[in-house]
Amino acid sequence: MGKTLIGALVQNLLKRTMKLAMIGFGQAGGKIVDKFLEYDARTGSGIVQSAIAVNTAKADLLGLENIPEENRVLIGQARVKGHGVGADNELGAEIAEEDIDEIQGAIDSIPVHEIDAFLIVAGLGGGTGSGGSPVLAKHLKRIYTEPVYGLGILPGGDEGGIYTLNAARSFQTFVREVDNLLVFDNDAWRKTGESVEGGYEEINDEIVRRFGVLFGAGEISADDNVAESVVDSSEIINTLEGGGVSTVGYDAEAVEEYDSGGLLSRFKGGDDDDMETANTTNRITSLVRKAALGRLTLPCEIEGSESALLVVSGPPNHLNRKGIERGRKWLEEQTGSMEVRGGDYPLDEPSVAAAVLLSGVHNVPRIKELQQVAIEAQENIDEIQQESEENLEALVEDDEDELDPLF
């Protein structure tokens, strides 16, 4: 084995998966971070270095299964007595500001020197996470040098005007306070006729699956699973550092495992392997296209993306550099970006998967639609409020103005 190859393998062994301090803000955020801990335990990926849940509703915190009780922070007790803020995200923001020291108390237990970034996870349609997550992001960026990312969940269009209005206002604020906002659009994932509870459960699984593969890339645990061109935390950070909005595409295909003779077989390229190599290359390039052009976490036109990252995972025997490089070049052509990184992530799983992170996306019809619906909802709310005040006035005032109020 040549010195160049040995050096590359040693360098890959030094790389590692992304280590995150995850903070779930509000009901949706807490549930998703809880699921990330479950994913970590199941896959051994080690993504979540620390996990905290913040909420104004005590019942939501009690319903969590994996986040340690000492890391569940109830805020706003003086204002809402543990009952939540409903869909009032202005109140959610106010409470987050008032009780930021309580949140910081939990964050103080995080070994910040061991993490690569903070990830604040929140549903943008409700009250607590929608209002509080931008407040927390601003606070963290003021104190720490580590990147602060957001994972924002957009509500479905059938959830009502107030949730759309909350999401539009929260999105506009959150994206300015974080180093990058990763977005998942419920509207693109809810199935027709599906129950709300069942739908959210499946959506949360999808969120964790996609971002788990992305953030988990880089962890090497077995000698025969050394990647040819490993993706690790530095590539993810470099892809996200331009800021703005990001979306993730994903596709997978089941494969049959076979004995290829270990790591070196991927570098020999003997005649007997030519057909299998061609099949592997074609499978990977096809998966990359389906991941980028299929259901993204936030549907958008991929052309114009400022940067991209490709991670191909699966059994080492089913990964090769040629397929990944072809997929990476195709992404360069489709996005028009010169900042397209790529690599593999060996996993002992019976499938090959491609995850595509597109950062700095601009052509996002859903965001424009969300903003327009929110503007209409705001106008309707103002009209209803004015009408309500007029109706109350007509009800309580006597015609002859003969009654005097108490004060």
Automatic annotation (TrEMBL):
Its main location: cytoplasm. PROSITE patterns: TUBULIN (PS00227). One of its GO terms (biological process) is cell division. Residues 19-242 form the Tubulin/FtsZ GTPase domain. It comes from Halovenus aranensis. This is Tubulin-like protein CetZ. The gene is cetZ. One of its GO terms (molecular function) is GTP binding. PANTHER family: CELL DIVISION PROTEIN FTSZ-RELATED, TUBULIN-LIKE PROTEIN CETZ.
